[in-house]
Design goal:
735 residues, mainly beta, 22-stranded antiparallel beta barrel, disordered N terminus
């Protein structure tokens, strides 16, 4: 059966609008046996019947395993996720620091407001990397911990429904669903190789496998592994761009090693228990990253020449999951997860003097982040007032602990005593309720309420209301409003966090040094997210959606010194992280899918999605929250040449990117923006036989290359490299 490309498969369960990304994962039949009649009936009531009422909806996108095979990423799943409506890659600031370390940004709310889940469990390893004063971290994010071979699907949830997931989901949620145990022994292995046309860009290669099957009666397993390497760009790739004698570094490389195992025990036909453990390692390949004017010092040059690792991350997880069917009471799921992230990185100099330079002799810092996560949910169908309901009741506990001596970028000034351990912790309890009410055959209303109790920042209420109305068999309208929030992170709120900058980083008229200290008196960031959308399908392959979203954002946590008044201690000035004023994020998302040949376009079909950002700025300063394109258009022409052979021609057009206009010293600056540009790709997949398939393609057909400007020039939007034309080949064998 032909399947649609990844750009435009939108689904939302009418009986579980806010829980769309969890419903199909949490309530599923046993992999070891066929569910009984009662469980099958409940499944149909919760998912199948609901989804059949709405074939297209805004706010939820699904990327399937088959679609990943058609467009395989070189390494990081973010390469695919970025093609969803409302999604882009961005850095956390316009300073250019770590500019090539871009992460998922949903609807312009920034990477810190995108919650990454794996099988419904939060992934928080990026929090082990220190947040610098302009908001950036030296991290690739959390979308590269699950190898491509192990992914069953990826769910992207945007808008008010995401508020149900608590802190850090104000922009949206990415839920990466892994493949599960199977009834019969099965497996597959994939090799991938990508080579750029330009010799100064890094190549990629990876090998991954997934193995699953029964172990004994009522006992099954799944095991996946991955070895991958993306080489760095040539250290001189950005020579000649910008005015500084010392140009910015290109994209650093990365080495990946992943192994994860899951054992599933079907205790009874209605009770399932799963045990899972995994270890992943990521190490960078240094390419001469720097932040100040001037060439590399001898140590940096040595590390660059040898392609050394300067930042290594070891992530270990262990989890237990129970799923149960309780008859008339409904279904339940309980998860406990332990996540331990150890980040070992070379100590760097302070801002404004030797920032980016490694100390002599080389010294290593260790950041250890431990996260404990407990979540229980109950899904109870019932009837009341002549209406059908599915009530979701949830209880959640999160504990976060970090020990990062490197967060004391420099010794605190005299009079400020610290333990010098960089320790910090926080506990959060949450209770949430959500009732999916089928008012009639056309209208489903979903009120929800979540209460989070943070030990340091008190209680936060997150009410929400979503609704879907089926106007006719072809038309439906969706709407929602919710209050979302994000608690201060463990660096911003830790009084033992100290970051220092010399005169170059202080506001005009203030001589250095200037210090920034964590602030335990911060308020959580909050956002009122609103959305309304219209969906249409004629059930003959034509369909379209359009959505308007509007977010009123306030209390964004910043340490942007030009807009703060320091405490004057005579020999130095002290700033703290503080809550900024109000911000506005507003835009449109839309899709249009056009059948050209075959039944409903199953031979040739054109898929399109468009995101337009109308506003994305701090109301007080006029500065952007995220540097993202004014618009993003993704198009795919999908041609099923034969049942064994299919091709795709893809195009992505990015609009202008507008950077900030105020420098770190508070003065007006001229930063480099980026004009519109387009990227094209050609891909093909051929099924050789039932056990072997091959894929090949050309990325960036037009060889459109962009180069990065030096950090010391306030790079603005020119803070990343866009790689040129590249060729890839992939081969997958299965049994």
């Amino acid at each position: 059966m032909p399947h649609a490309p990844i750009h435009h498969r939108f689904r939302r369960s009418l009986l579980s609008v806010a829980a769309a990304s969890a419903a199909s994962m949490l309530i599923q039949p046993s992999a070891a046996q066929v569910p009984d009649a009662a469980e099958e009936a409940l499944l149909q009531e919760v998912t199948v019947t609901a989804e059949s009422q709405l074939l297209q909806a805004v706010g939820v996108s699904i990327i399937t395993a088959e679609e990943i095979e058609d467009r395989p990423p070189a390494n990081d799943l973010a390469e695919l996720i970025r093609t969803m409506p409302g999604v882009n890659l961005t850095g956390a600031s316009s300073s250019g620091a770590f500019g090539n370390q871009r992460q998922i940004d949903i609807r312009g709310m920034g990477p810190e407001n995108t919650l990454i889940l794996v099988d419904g469990k939060p992934v928080q390893s990026r929090s082990s990397s220190m947040m610098r004063r302009t908001g950036e971290r030296d991290t690739r994010g959390d979308t590269n911990w699950v190898p491509v071979t192990a992914v069953e699907r990826i769910e992207v949830l945007r808008g008010p429904a995401a508020a149900r997931y608590g802190s850090g989901a104000a922009g949206g949620v990415i839920n990466i669903i892994t493949k599960k145990p199977t009834e019969q022994l099965s497996g597959e292995a994939t090799v991938y190789y990508r080579t750029p046309q330009e010799k100064n860009e890094g190549s990629s290669q990876r090998l991954g496998f997934n193995l699953a099957g029964p172990m004994a009666e009522n006992l099954s397993f799944r095991l996946y592994g991955n070895v991958a390497k993306t080489n760095r760009d040539n250290p001189g790739i950005n020579d000649g761009f910008g005015t500084q004698a010392s140009p910015a570094a290109g994209r650093e490389g990365v080495r990946n090693r992943d192994i994860d195992g899951l054992i599933r025990w079907d205790l009874t036909p209605d009770q399932v228990l799963e045990f899972e453990a995994g270890v992943s390692r990521q190490g960078n390949i240094y390419t001469g990253e720097r932040f100040i004017q001037g060439g590399l010092n001898p140590i940096q040059q040595q590390l660059t020449d040898s392609g050394a690792e300067t930042n290594r991350i070891l992530r270990r997880t262990a989890a237990v999951t129970h799923r149960g069917n309780w008859g008339d009471m409904g279904n339940s799921r309980v998860i406990f997860q332990y996540e331990d992230t150890n980040r070992r990185y070379l100590n760097q100099g302070a801002a404004g003097s030797s920032e980016g330079a490694f100390t002599d002799p080389l010294t290593w810092n260790n950041s250890e982040l431990k996260n404990y996560y407990l979540n229980g949910e109950m899904y109870t169908p019932f009837s009341a007032g002549g209406m059908n309901h599915v009530l979701t009741t949830g209880l959640e506990y999160r504990q976060e602990k970090i020990k990062d001596p490197g967060s004391q970028n420099a010794n605190p000034p005299a009079g400020f005593e610290t333990s010098k351990t960089g320790k910090s912790s926080s506990d959060t309890w949450a209770l949430y309720l959500e009732d999916n009410i089928a008012v009639n055959e056309a209208l489903v209303v979903t009120p929800g309420l979540r209460l989070d109790r943070h030990e340091n920042f008190g209680s936060n209420w997150s009410p929400s209301l979503n609704a879907t109305y089926q106007l006719s068999s072809q038309w439906s309208v969706n709407g929602g409003i919710a209050r979302a929030f994000k608690a201060p992170n463990i660096y911003q709120s830790n009084p033992e966090y100290w970051y220092t900058t010399m005169g170059n980083g202080c506001p005009t008229g203030i001589s250095g040094p200037c210090y920034i200290q964590g602030n335990p008196d911060l308020k959580p960031e909050t956002s009122i997210n609103k959305e309304i959308g219209l969906a249409w399908t004629n059930h003959q392959g034509w369909d379209a959606t359009i959505a308007y979203f509007d977010n009123d954002y306030k209390n964004k946590i910043v340490a942007d010194m030009p807009f703060a008044t320091p405490d004057d201690y005579g020999t130095f000035r002290r700033f703290q992280w503080y809550n900024a004023g109000k911000a506005k994020v507003r835009g449109l998302e839309g899709s249009l899918n056009i059948p050209i040949l075959g039944h409903n376009g199953d031979t040739l079909k054109l898929f399109n999605n468009l995101t337009v950002m109308d506003q994305n700025k701090n109301k007080d300063t006029g500065q952007p929250l995220s540097i993202i394109p004014k618009f993003t258009l993704n198009s795919t022409l999908d041609w099923r040449v034969h049942e064994k052979f299919n091709t795709e021609l893809t195009a992505t057009v990015y609009g202008k990117q507008k950077p900030r206009t105020v420098g770190s010293r508070g003065d007006a600056i001229t930063t480099e923006g980026r004009g519109s540009y387009a990227l094209f790709g050609l891909r093909a997949t051929y099924t050789i036989n039932k056990n072997l398939r091959a894929g090949f393609g050309i990325e960036n057909l037009g060889n459109k290359r962009l180069y990065r400007t030096a950090n010391s020039e306030s790079a603005g939007a020119a803070s990343y490299n866009e790689p040129g034309r590249a060729y890839y080949l992939t081969l997958t064998g299965s049994f």
